[in-house]
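Quick one, T. Sequence first:
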Amino acid sequence: MKIKSLVVALVLLAAVPVTAFAGGFCCQLNTGIGEGLNGSAGAGKVQMGVNYSYSRMEGFYEGDSKLGLDELLNDPRFRKMDGVVPESMDMTRITMTASYAPVDKLRVIVSAPWVINDMKMYMYMPMTGKWSLMKMHQVSELGDVTVSGLYRVYQDRDIMPLTVVSAGVGLKLPTGSYTEKNSKGSLIHAHMQPGTGSWDPILSAVLVKMISPEFMARADVNYQFATENHNGYEFGDTFALNGNLDYNLFEFMNLTLGANYFHSEQADDREGKYNGNLPQRLTDYAGYTGEDSIWVSPGIQIIPFDGARLDASVQLPVYYYAGGVQQVTDYRVLAGFSYGF
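Structure tokens:
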């Protein structure tokens, strides 16, 4: 499904802050762009933040059909030489973000994630006709740094605005390693690498609106253009559309409820260096990538003191459509702290 023209039109017309969000293996989206209604980009303002994301992956989908692990272990597509089926994956990101407003209404943002990936997988042994469970060596390294800018293109009034529209551009840099190897000297699964090895432009926008003294609505859209890395791998473009409603329960506390849509194009392992052309390897085959998913995200925000904010939420999938057979995210836990001055 090609939606570039639609997304570009949306960005030119309206709405988005950007969240690190993905469903199955497409876990590389991380722009670091974000803005709240009261986070005015007044000249000289600085904001620092740290965000934590933990994703647990156990379930499987083929198209929109849910599959069990036993089904895949008995599937003749994978019971072959070099057959691999993942048992579970844990993906953790700890992202440091800093932003600075050099002029009024413009914010420049830099975000740097530390990536921790763990995977257990079954490898097929054709001599015995059985599967052997193995644990991949943990990946724990710096991921891809993102540099971006967010500019307020509209606000309905200068002081305490009720409606704010911002637009942003960014670039994901290939700072994270994309050449990590296993004990046999082969490249590990491309989506388990700490980095992508590609320079990826990003377009974004954000709409924030105060509905009443108790309710605030936010909408955001983000498109990341994937490019090919030096090993001939391209992760596929990604698109995220998010909506949030915040309710001010107490002066220091907000309740939040979000709805999220995520789309990823299919990846391409043109040179086959990541085993992306071997369909018996469920973790590696490029034909088993690309997805559409819908999520709900309940959460809470706490303002402990002036300029500071604590956020916590959980993302739960309500719909998946996976390209081919994929292990998908069962849930994601998010937490963060930011301080502006």
